[in-house]
């Protein structure tokens, strides 16, 4: 999903924190139309699922920002997290203590970790934009079906990040088995 | 502008002034959305404003700009210049009967002109830049062939025409992305980075690169310095939308939505040059091989085109605070 839709409610509606209630209404109308059912400007650009999520984010942002009380709460809660808006431009910070699996990491190892964490393949596919097919091939060790190492490394890192494993070491370890062959 | 036109050669001397030429181009992935008619009427309006304008029909293989202007096919075309039957580009330009507006017609009769090579393209561009006019307005063909995209990218003002229909918008996005990827491919440093850009060109690529933003992320992982170069290219790329044949305000607002969608979901800084209202007077005029801006009942779309021309001249574009 596009970065901006991961930001604050203000980011989602393209507003400053100082926006007036009229500006909130105005922005909502515009973004509601942009992600509306069959809206021309997004229909061929985004997947239906992406449009659905974007629309839901816009709705959610509007519900909070239109209500003075909820908006005040939200502002107070997110005040310290002001910086994360800029943070979205940089790579996400590594999670504390990412797990490192014993080498060499295999597809079934990855699946076990993923299932332990209760992360769905669809979830990873959606967040990383990696085709679900390729995630399945990774877990099934169907290396012949996987893309060149330069792309696969990125896939593996995304996968690892999503399930709380160390991205670099997991990808390196998985790839080491491929190159040996 | 009658059938008995004389095809007076336009007195276009090579420019001696160092002022940069303003090269404008009009593209849009889809055919039949009014690109040529917009080019002709934009050119006519610019000429009315006192600008010296040459229209170039770069729709090689499907040229019809002359018909939009009520002229029959001129004896010499861009094809004659490309194949060097004519050495100087100004010799294939003809008067249009409108003060200040001349035309370099396309090569509808010359099939291989639609596949001109890179050196020929560069020669056309260089000579066009040297013409003694204020604006060179290029009408590009439909589709996303490299010929079309290269002229689009070489322009100072790159206009992209869409109509409020899903097919046109879809092709418009395809065009805007194809042109950007071509630009990035040229700027890409290093074999690995070029491979990633090539990968992005394939819409069904396995690495999940679907947008320029995805591409930047992938390049960033591979080579942060190369990503910087590409990011600069991405920011310098500023296509301008024109929404043609709008019926009502909701249609006209699509231009703003396209700009927002480009920024948010593609990372492309597009702008909105304006919209042109749908009007029956336009096709009535086309059938009579006239330009609608000469007819009293064509006043509304004519006013819209005028506004676009004036806005572009002042390098103004419609922007809203939320875009």
Write up what this structure looks like:
- The complex is a heterodimer of chains A (about 180) and B (about 325).
- Chain A has about 180 residues and is mainly alpha-helical.
- Helix content of chain A is about 60%, strand content about 0%.
- Chain A folds into 2 domains: about 5-85, Helix Hairpins; about 105-180, 434 Repressor (Amino-terminal Domain), CATH 1.10.260.
- Chain A is built from 11 helices and no strands.
- Chain B has about 325 residues and is α/β, with parallel strands linked by helices.
- Chain B has one domain: P-loop containing nucleotide triphosphate hydrolases (Rossmann fold), CATH 3.40.50.
- Chain B is built from 12 helices and 8 strands.
- Chain B has helices spanning about 35-50, 65-70, 80, 120-130, 145-155, 165-185, 190-200, 210-220, 225-235, 250-265, 280-285, 300-315; strands at about 20-25, 55-60, 95-100, 100-105, 135-140, 155-160, 240-245, 270-275.
- In chain B, strands 3-4-2-5-1-6-7-8 form an 8-stranded mixed β-sheet, with helices on both faces.
- In chain B, helix 5 crosses helix 6, helix 6 (about 165-185) crosses helix 9 (about 225-235) and helix 7 runs antiparallel to helix 8.
- Residues about 315-323 of chain B have low confidence and may be disordered.
- The interface between A and B is medium-sized, with 31 and 33 residues.
């Amino acid at each position: 999903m596009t970065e901006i839709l991961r930001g604050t409610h203000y980011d989602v509606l393209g507003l400053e924190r100082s926006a007036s209630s009229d500006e909130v209404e105005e922005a909502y109308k515009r973004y509601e139309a942009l992600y509306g059912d069959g809206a021309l400007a997004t229909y061929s650009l985004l997947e239906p699922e992406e449009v659905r999520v974007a629309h839901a984010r816009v709705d959610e942002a509007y519900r909070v920002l239109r209500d003075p009380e909820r908006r005040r709460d939200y502002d107070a809660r997110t005040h310290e997290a002001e910086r994360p808006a800029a943070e979205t431009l940089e790579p996400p910070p590594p999670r504390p203590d990412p797990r490192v699996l014993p080498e060499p990491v295999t597809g079934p190892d990855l699946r076990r970790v993923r299932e332990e964490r209760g992360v769905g393949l669809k979830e990873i596919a959606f967040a990383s934009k990696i085709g679900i097919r390729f995630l399945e091939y990774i877990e099934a060790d169907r290396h012949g079906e996987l893309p060149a190492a330069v792309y696969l490394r990125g896939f593996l890192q995304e996968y690892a990040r999503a399930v709380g494993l160390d991205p670099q070491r997991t990808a390196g370890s998985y790839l080491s088995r491929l190159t040996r062959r | 502008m009658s059938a008995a036109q004389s095809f007076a050669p336009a007195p276009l001397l090579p420019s001696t002034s160092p002022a940069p030429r303003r090269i404008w181009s009009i593209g849009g992935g889809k055919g039949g959305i009014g690109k040529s008619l917009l080019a002709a009427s934009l050119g006519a309006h610019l000429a009315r404003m006192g600008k010296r304008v040459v229209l170039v029909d770069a729709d090689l293989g499907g040229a019809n700009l002359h018909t939009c202007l009520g002229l029959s096919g001129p004896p010499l075309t861009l094809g004659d210049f490309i194949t060097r039957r004519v050495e100087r580009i100004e010799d294939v330009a003809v008067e249009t009967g409108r003060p200040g507006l001349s035309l370099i017609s396309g090569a509808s009769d010359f099939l291989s002109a639609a596949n001109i090579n890179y050196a020929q393209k560069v020669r056309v561009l260089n000579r066009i830049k040297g013409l003694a006019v204020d604006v060179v307005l290029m009408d590009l063909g439909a589709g996303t062939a490299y010929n079309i995209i290269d002229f689009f990218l070489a322009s100072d003002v790159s206009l992209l025409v869409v109509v409020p229909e899903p097919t046109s918008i879809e092709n418009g996005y395809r065009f805007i992305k194809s042109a950007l990827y071509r630009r990035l491919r040229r700027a890409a440093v290093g074999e690995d980075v070029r491979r990633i850009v090539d990968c992005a060109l394939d819409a069904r690529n396995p690495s999940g690169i679907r947008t320029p933003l995805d591409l930047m992320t992938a390049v960033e992982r591979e080579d942060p310095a190369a990503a910087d170069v590409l990011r600069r290219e991405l920011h310098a790329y500023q296509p301008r939308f024109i929404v043609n044949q709008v019926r009502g305000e909701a249609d006209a607002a699509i231009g703003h939505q396209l700009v927002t969608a480009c920024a948010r979901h593609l990372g492309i800084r597009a702008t909105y040059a304006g919209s042109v209202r749908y009007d029956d007077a336009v096709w009535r005029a086309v059938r009579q091989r006239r330009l609608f801006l000469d007819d009293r009942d064509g006043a509304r779309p004519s006013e819209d085109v005028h506004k676009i021309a004036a806005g572009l001249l002042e390098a103004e574009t419609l922007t809203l605070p939320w875009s």
